[in-house]
Amino acid sequence: MENQQLLDIAQEFGAPVYVYDAGKIQSQYNRLTEAFSSVPRLKLNYAAKALSNLSVLRYLKSLGSGLDTVSIQEVQLGLRAGFNPEDIIYTPNGVSLEEIEQAAALGVQINIDNLSILEQFGHLHPKTPVCIRINPHVMAGGNSNISVGHIDSKFGISIHQIPHLLRIVELTGMHVNGIHMHTGSDILDIDVFLYASEILFDTAKHFKELEFIDFGSGFKVPYKENDIQTNVGELGQKLGGRFNAFCEEYGRPLTLSFEPGKFLVSEAGYFLARVNVVKQTTSTVFAGIDSGFNHLIRPMLYGSQHEIHNLSNPEGKERYYSVVGYICETDTFGSNRRIREISEGDILCFRNAGAYCFTMASNYNSRYRPAEVLWLDGKAHLIRERETFEDLLRGQVEVPDLFEAKPAAPVGGAQQTNGNRPKGNLKIKSAAER
User: Fold this and answer.
1) Among 31, 167, 258, 265, which residue's CB has the most CB atoms within a 10 Å radius?
2) Annotated binding-site residue? 364
3) Which residues are annotated as active site (predicted)?
4) Is 349 in the active site?
5) In CATH, what class is 22-265?
């Protein structure tokens, strides 16, 4: 998107505001499908947790995507967006059996990642097809919080527990129709991913009625100019060929599934914020904006980098700024960044704001969450209104008279007759009187 288009959106809808470029989402979707064009049966299930606005979900459905969900609420959003239940996979972690049964009742594909729930679900619903999430014990991912396939991870069933897993499947008679893994986000080393895939192929041989193998996702996108990223073309060539060979060994065609989230929407997103104040200290020039980590927590939580551009002065001289928010804690978006000269009132643009930005936003400091806008076919469409004070009050219960002052008890009044001491001043007996 061009500077002026983004400035027009900030003018029309106010700042701060999230903007999503539908064209970029489509191009990323096409990149993946083309990379794996050698695979006859490919299924991309968009990871709703990255950005779950209904309009974005509907747009991805129009491209042919399925949906990857991690909560019953995301399942319900997917159904509301028009996805067929069979095009939704539900991969929770640490949820109750009751929630999993809720999802199963809605007809979506269940994916279970622990032996306890697998055994309980298998006894109660042996005819319901189940996918099983395996932990391959492979360390991958750009941050410890998003590396989920290693031996100490809470996710998945350990490959060392395969004998126990097979015993549960045999005793319950349950129908396993899929095998799944997800090693982590921001994967760079394709060979590590292929190594984990071989573990998944070996595991798949134990199950004779599979319909698909799900390799998760975690493809890295660039966060700055000349940044490294996952080579999906090379991955498609190597993994696609290996997958086709495995299907030959297995004896019938299977579907290759992925769950891209960040890869599809991260680069499509822009977060626009207005500069409230430019503050010079003895060592730093701060650009304080009308936002904080309540709207964009990733730099503080993951140490992630988002390029910051001054849309209002794109040709200005570059200076060094630390861009900070208005939250009453340290909320630094970027330290000593080279940005075109900033003045109060300028609009700053944060790139890569499509994934895990609005979905991780909060009302911390009782601030409102911003509006969301979808840029589609050369036009800006409001897809979520900016919150108001009424949104902060929604759900709160004001109990009448709960904190009303109570009348004081009378002093020196009639004696109580229930055997308790009377209220009022009590005389302490001396030792001689006792």
Assistant:
1) 265
2) no
3) 328 (proton donor)
4) no
5) alpha beta
